[in-house]
Specification:
4-stranded mixed beta sheet, mainly beta, about 240 residues, 5-stranded antiparallel beta sheet, 18 strands
Length: about 240
């Protein structure tokens, strides 16, 4: 009788001990990053959203967009990342400072990207008109009401002005005339940091409506991935 009592108590204590133990699952250290892209031609016509590769810089993680433009980067360790977006004809777009922590990350803002510009600048002239400067830009193909073209200009006091070497750049400009006459007013030039008597150089490139531009904190500059680099030499003018 004593033996059976001891055995029953031993079983009871064993079962009681198992019930008191709590198993805490390990904290997650990785999760998914998801997002969406919308792809366009040089203008505002949306085209096939599939086939764009999205990569997490510094890891082996990558994904390809589907026809809806959606992508999922699976099992990305928590951290702050740079994403690259690449597809033939779209250059490389980068999104910096993507914070990924405490579960799946959804990039709520759709990334809209355009095809590289096929607009070449073939003639560029600068003339002073009173207190203004007029840049006359001829493109190939020519801009017209039925064939919208896009350009962008860059200014600098350096004769080597370019998309990577400038002190001022315009937004994307719609061209429906050939040549297109851009009037830079005294106010525009002053706001751009130029003063009367300075020699300023201007360079113009073909661009797309969705220019895929981004700020690169490593380079400390803005990057324009899909400009058409086939362009004429820069022109100069003296600020009135």
């Amino acid at each position: 009788t004593k033996f059976y009592l001891i055995l029953i108590l031993a079983v009871f204590w064993s079962c009681s001990g198992d019930g008191d133990e709590e198993t805490t699952p390990p904290a997650a250290t990785a999760a998914d990053i998801t997002g969406t892209v919308s792809l366009y031609d040089e203008g505002v016509t949306q085209i096939d959203n599939s086939g764009m590769t999205v990569k997490v810089v510094g890891t082996s993680k990558s994904a390809t967009t589907n026809t809806s433009g959606s992508f999922t980067l699976s099992g990305v360790p928590f951290g702050t990342y740079t994403l690259t977006y690449e597809k033939a004809g779209y250059g490389t777009f980068k999104k910096y400072g993507v914070e990924h922590k405490n579960g799946n990350t959804f990039i709520s803002q759709t990334t809209s990207l355009g095809e590289a510009s096929t607009t070449q600048v073939t003639v560029l002239e600068a003339t002073v008109d009173g207190n203004d400067v007029v840049l006359s830009v001829t493109t190939d193909p020519p801009g017209s009401l039925g064939n919208k073209r896009y350009i962008r200009y860059f200014l600098s006091t350096d004769s080597g002005v370019s998309s990577a070497n400038n002190s001022y750049y315009s937004g994307v400009i719609l061209s429906q005339n050939n040549p297109l006459n851009l009037r830079l007013t005294a106010s525009t030039l002053s706001d751009a940091g130029f003063s009367s008597g300075q020699t300023v150089y201007a360079k113009v490139y073909g661009d797309s409506f969705w220019s895929n531009e981004y700020d690169d904190p490593d380079l400390g500059t803005r990057v324009f991935p899909i400009l058409n680099m086939t362009s004429v030499n820069a022109v100069s003018f003296i600020v009135p």
